[in-house]
Structures are given as C-alpha cells and as structure tokens.
Specification:
The protein is an all-alpha fold. It has 2 domains: 95 residues, no CATH class; 77 residues, Arc Repressor Mutant, subunit A. Helices cover 41% and strands 0% of the residues. It is built from 9 helices and no strands. Helix 2 packs across helix 3. The two termini are 27 Å apart. The N terminus is likely disordered. The structure holds a DNA duplex (21 and 21 nucleotides).
DNA sequence: AAGCGCGACAACCGCCTGCGA
DNA sequence: ATCGCAGGCGGTTGTCGCGCT
C-alpha cells in the first residue's frame, strides 16, 4: 500500500459525525482497495480521520451486510440469552447475530433491556412478598416481554450533519418496514466489489444532498446507487 | 411558543491483546 | 525478551429529536 509522508501537524484530525462525502470516500476506497491497515487507509483515502474512526464507521454503518434497526423479538430474546451466557462481551454476542454490530447491541442493551431489568428489579422489590410472578428479562420468553419493549422500528436512516435530517427517533410507534430489507441487500451485494470504481478525488467537491426532509438516505439506498460507486 | 427532560444512538476514549521487528 | 504499532473491545460521552409541561 502506498505510504505518503504525513504528520499530525499537516493534517487536522476530524472528529464528530461523518459527512456523506466522507462516507462515500471511505466506501469507494475500500471498494477499490479492500480493507487494510486502517491508519494508512485513512491517509491514503484522504480522510482527515483516525484509522480507528474509519474502522468503526465501516464496521458499524457502511458495511453492505450491516443490518440496522428493527431488532426482532427473536433477536431480543437471543441477545438476552447470550448476555446471560457471555456477559458484556458484545462482540461475542454480535457474532451470533448476523449483520448486527457490537455497538448496536450494546446500545440496544443499555437503552432498552437494561431499563427493563431495572423496572423488573423495582417490581421485584415492590412485590417481594406477593405471589405475583416477577418478570425475568433474562429468562423471559418473548411473550413475557412487554410489547412496548419490542422494537417495531424500521431501518434507521443514516443522517448527515448539516442536513435537514428527518428524525431518527423511534417514538412514532408506526411499523414501517423499509422495502429494502437488509437480508435482501446482503444477498445482492457482496464484498467482491466490481472494478472501475471512481477514485475519491473524482468526487464532486459538493455532494448533491437532497435539500428537504429526504436529506438522509438508507444505507440500502446508498449501496443501491451504482452511479455513486462506479461513476456511471 | 418556549424550555426542559428524556430516550436513542453515533462516535470517541482508553485499555488490552496480538504480532512483527 | 521487549518495544512499538495496529486492531479489537467495552465503557462512556455528546448530540439530536421528540414529547411533555
């Protein structure tokens, strides 16, 4: 891999949310060259990001086989079982959930399931002397899980800073199954990227971002935009 | 209408491990 | 044997949007 002279003084490391341009650069670079040493990848691609940041972004969001949102009751149950088995070994748990990332599972656990457990503990204290059967989030079957905890969300949209992004919130309660299911995507997208992808420097300086409520895209849509990947 | 609090999630930080020089 | 680097991993924080008051 080509190495360029580079020092921290020459290049300010960017932090914070990734922009669409950065995503495109990273995706195209990996499409062209594959994954490699992340630090040099970041430099070679011209990204002002650390290798770690690039790796995280790729593994958690940009990989074509990553599934986002819509944790099914089966997955929730599996997460509970695996957590009971492995503890906070999120990467281990993630290995049993194809397309799910450790970060997503970790967040899911902390925001949803842990809350459940806390509520359960509170109930346990309150009803410690009663005959009422306490909810056991770890050993519970999905039928025991309050419906409010079952994630009914659709795929989470990717949002970009500076755009008039739609909410990524999942409070609407509307079951909205996105037409591009991740499984379908996985089957139609593989990591053997066909050649002739454009180089990062060929990207327009200002990527055309849809200037309205649709100013975000699903990664499925992202990968379904061959003109962005191969320059058509 | 504005402010506040909360939930959800993206991203960073720091530590640990493995590997090559 | 040890030192440095890169990657992996879990914990934590920051940000944003929504609902409530």
């Amino acid at each position: 891999m080509e190495k360029k002279p580079w020092s921290s003084q020459e290049q300010v490391v960017r932090k914070g949310p990734w922009t669409m341009e950065e995503d495109l650069i990273l995706v195209n670079y990996i499409a062209n060259h594959g994954e490699g040493v992340w630090n040099s990848l970041a430099r070679s691609a011209g990204l002002k990001r650390t290798g770690k940041s690039c790796r995280l972004r790729w593994l958690n969001y940009l990989r074509p086989d990553v599934r986002r949102g819509n944790i099914t009751p089966e997955e929730q149950l599996l997460i509970m079982e695996l957590h009971a088995k492995f503890g906070n070994r999120w990467s281990k748990i993630a290995k049993h959930l194809p397309g799910r990332t450790d970060n997503e599972i970790k967040n899911y656990w902390r925001t949803r399931i842990q809350k459940l457990i806390n509520q359960s503990n509170a109930i346990t204290v309150r009803h410690s002397n009663s005959s009422e059967r306490n909810f056991d989030p770890v050993g519970a079957s999905t039928s025991q899980i309050p419906t409010s905890t079952i994630d009914e969300t659709c795929c989470s949209p990717i949002s970009y800073p500076g755009t008039d992004q739609s909410s990524t919130s999942q409070m609407s309660g509307v079951v909205d199954i996105h037409p591009h299911q991740a499984v379908e995507l996985t089957s139609s997208t593989n990591m053997n990227f066909p050649g002739n992808y454009i180089n990062p420097e060929d990207f327009p300086a200002s990527f055309p971002i849809v200037p309205n409520e649709n100013a975000w895209i699903f990664m499925e849509d992202f990968w379904a935009m061959p003109h962005l990947l191969n320059g058509d």
